[in-house]
Amino acid sequence: MAYKTNTERIWQQAPKCDCGKQDCNERNHRMCIRCNKKMLYGSHFSIEKLNNSEFAWNVDLIVPKSEGGNTKLNNLVAVHIKCNNSRNRKDGSNEY
Ligand SMILES: [Zn+2]
Ligand SMILES: [Zn+2]
User: Taking the CB of residue 12, how many other CB atoms lie within 10 A of it?
Assistant: First the structure.
């Protein structure tokens, strides 16, 4: 089995997509748990993609740090950048 990065593991924890498009598979498409819409694996967070992809995603915490959440794998989830709660945190912290 090939080595998987944390990012890949987190991606694979997201719900499967069933849009039926030709490129729809577990590797390319997953669903955002916040808005239930499609994310593209290739649109993982990057500065260039941040502003021009509705499918762009990043890693967020299921239980926020302010509520005692940790950064272990089972508390991490792939969501759209626009759905990422951590971007709106009062302390401005942008870590996982
Ligand atoms: Zn799909
Ligand atoms: Zn979303």
Answer: 14
Among 7, 64, 17, CA closest to 37 = 17
Residue that has been written with the tokens 């090939």 in this structure: 2
CA of residue 43 to ligand 2 center, whole Å: 13
pLDDT per position as a tens digit, 17-75 = 999 999 999 999 999 999 999 999 987 766 555 556 788 898 999 998 999 999 999 99
The token pair at 2 is: 């090939």
Could you tell me the distance, in angstroms and rounded to a whole number, from the CA of residue 65 to the centre of ligand 1?
31
Phi-psi bin for 55: left (phi > 0), alpha (psi -120 to 50), beta? alpha
Tokens of 6: 């944390």
